[in-house]
Amino acid sequence: MKKEDTVKLISAEGFEFVIDKNAAMVSQTIRNMLTSPGGFAETEHREVTFPEISTTILEKICQYFYWSLQYASCWEGD
């Protein structure tokens, strides 16, 4: 996976999760942070720091992103 295809999410404790950009884009908030015009650091470095979210919770969030990316299309047909 190329670096430009990844995003780094950083927990309150400084633990870094490098995940697929498509998985991160499941979150509208992260999508806005990474695609906003204006030269924000998150856009340039593809890093988002969450000072209020612990490592354990951010890990579960990342797992959800991948789960949603894989299974969301199954639910759209219902």
UniProtKB/TrEMBL annotation:
<comment type="pathway">
    <text>Protein modification; protein ubiquitination.</text>
</comment>
<dbReference type="InterPro" id="IPR039948">
    <property type="entry name" value="ELC1"/>
</dbReference>
<protein>
    <recommendedName>
        <fullName>Elongin-C</fullName>
    </recommendedName>
</protein>
<dbReference type="Pfam" id="PF03931">
    <property type="entry name" value="Skp1_POZ"/>
</dbReference>
<feature type="domain" description="SKP1 component POZ">
    <location>
        <begin position="6"/>
        <end position="66"/>
    </location>
</feature>
<keyword id="KW-0539">Nucleus</keyword>
<comment type="similarity">
    <text>Belongs to the SKP1 family.</text>
</comment>
<dbReference type="GO" id="GO:0070449">
    <property type="term" value="C:elongin complex"/>
</dbReference>
<dbReference type="InterPro" id="IPR016073">
    <property type="entry name" value="Skp1_comp_POZ"/>
</dbReference>
<dbReference type="GO" id="GO:0006511">
    <property type="term" value="P:ubiquitin-dependent protein catabolic process"/>
</dbReference>
<dbReference type="GO" id="GO:0030674">
    <property type="term" value="F:protein-macromolecule adaptor activity"/>
</dbReference>
<dbReference type="InterPro" id="IPR011333">
    <property type="entry name" value="SKP1/BTB/POZ_sf"/>
</dbReference>
